[in-house]
């Protein structure tokens, strides 16, 4: 029995504490990454216009009601038979559908293609008005008075990444005579054309003064329906990472209960992290081969760390203590231990970040990490030791090899390193603050190029401050201000610590007042939190009249913005200022 593809853990949710104020991932992005339906499997709809007064739902009878995640509908008369056919694009498979309109009808049509000369060539923005001489049509209101007009506008774009045909299609119903066609070109110029016949195609060139009849060519490439087939399952895969993403700090627990960090056990050497389970027979065969060829692996300089996921899967019947004995039975004597929930969650984060889609990791799964601590290869399913040895030998050039490309080719420009900013943001969001601090320190040059780096630094600083590490938190606020001099959140938070910290050696009212005054000036002084900090800074400098004025203004803004709890806290601080006392944060 094969256990390939069995989930290790689902890291889409986490019990780790969230830092307050951390924005959550957009719901739409979450749906995309989890491969879920945007529409909730709601079927497509099609409505038929009845005499211009109401619509009938013909979704089912027309064959239009597919349960696809539709993104756009593009209209065209593909076969030039006078009716509108549809191209539909979907997020899910099939990504493209073609719906040919073969409904027999006695109704008439007219199609027009515009070409601009003094305006844009495709005449985007042009308005075409068609007037019928005998408008007795099942599709038009039957009424007396001036002849009705049919109006079309030439436009670009029909939904997401879609463009309808630039032929403007007019359905004429039973009408057989056209009185005139008026084209209002972009810019306001107007031309009138007469003598046009129904059931024809015309090309109109700006300033030509004449509509020329056009005969469509015969389609030489027929469209044939195809069968939608599901892709074959990929129980085994080898993915060479062109990104060489620096790995997140990974820890595991040895079988005797000791905590180990991966970088501690293999400093400066390639590492193969192997996830396995005692109930997974392919895993045991893989471990046996790794044990039998241990000498070759040691000579190649690669360290193997086999991590059992038994403790993470409570649905299996294998005793959680079976792992050490099974390793002994297969002859494996290398480094081993338990994969913790944190280990699995961080590995899942890395996998999701690289592939931008969430799928629970399975066993066996292995990751080859190079000597610089960067992910080089991800293996899904049992690993081939021969392939592993080849990959280890080629590590310096592996990312530029054909195996690292999604298709045949070669690099023509220097590759940009993948910026792991969003991965680090998720790391701190899930409560891994120490790992975040270590990762930023090690990969600062790579991360600092991201436009949102100041926001990340402030986020980490807030986490450090919340657990009492004010000095280290301040260093992160200062780093953010080095990147963006007037970054308001960093100015505000740093000034707050400098104004209110209980430790006198940390406080600096003069610097706090300079920082927060600049922040208030840049933002026109209308943020209650900024004014609250300004009041605290004034109080620290013993300028209590100014502190009272700022606090009252902060209370007013907080109440007007519905921030009643904040207003109450500022009111308590105001009482201190009125008693000529500064505020000290607890």
Largest sheet: 6 strands, mixed
Side-by-side strand order of the widest sheet: 15-23-22-18-19-20
Alpha-carbon Rg, integer: 34 Å
Report mean pLDDT, rounded to a whole number: 88
Number of domains: 3
Categorize the overall geometry.
flat
* Helical proportion, percent range: 25-40%
Kindly state the number of beta strands.
Answer: 23
Note the total helix count: 18
Name its key features.
single chain, 586 residues, 6-stranded mixed β-sheet, 18 helices
Report what the structure shows.
This protein is of the alpha+beta class and 586 residues long. It has 3 domains: 47-214, no CATH class; 237-404, Glutaredoxin (3-Layer(aba) Sandwich), CATH 3.40.30; 421-578, Tetratricopeptide repeat domain (Serine Threonine Protein Phosphatase 5, Tetratricopeptide repeat), CATH 1.25.40. Helix content is 32%, strand content 19%. It contains 18 helices and 23 strands. The protein has a 6-stranded mixed sheet with strand order 15-23-22-18-19-20, with helices on one face. The protein has a 4-stranded mixed sheet with strand order 10-7-13-14, with no helix packed on it. The longest helix has 17 residues, at 544-560.
